[in-house]
Amino acid sequence: MADWTSVAPDGTKSVKDNNPILSGNTAYTEIEMNKDHFWNIADDKNGHHKFALMPKYETAASPPLAGASNLAYFAKEIAGFDVQPFASNAGGIMQLLGIRACGVFTTTAGVINTQYSHNCTIAWAGVGRYTVNFTTALPTANYLFLGGAVSKSTASNTNDIIASLVTLKSTSKTTGNLLIGCIVTLEGNSISPPHLNLKVKPIESFASFNTA
Questions:
Q1: Cα 116 to chain centroid, rounded
Q2: What is the mean pLDDT of the chain?
């Protein structure tokens, strides 16, 4: 890996001897900038972020807004949980938590067909019951899950029917998996819905919101 030379060019050296120093600084800049930026790659990407890499912010208070800055984006550790993204502006501090796991799937006679999933697999656990197994365990069992269901029927040439009543409940909730029940009451009959949409996010995202 190239090292950065603070004194460059070196006035005590010849042009020839300064060449490797300046070349080394150029190489160092490209290596470091390309960690999370596009640098000397292509004209339409140069200078843009690939993603943001940052260590956690160690100070209890949020970062001060310097100069003409209007927003600070930083990482901060939540006691007992893990490092989370935060944003701060003149109005206060906000925790930016996305969805930890989610899935969209259909069921037919106990067979699950997953259309999409993130950080989880879904298994049939009986009529109206499903087990969501998290690929990467959640940092705490104190999380909120959201879900909805749609029942399909071909009777009388109807299309998708949104059930009038959906009961979504948890009888088991850990950092590794979630057992849910979802029963739809449709035309007086309780059925296991063929379509279920799940979203899981930590409950601390609500508790950490702060306004000025």
A1: 15
A2: 74
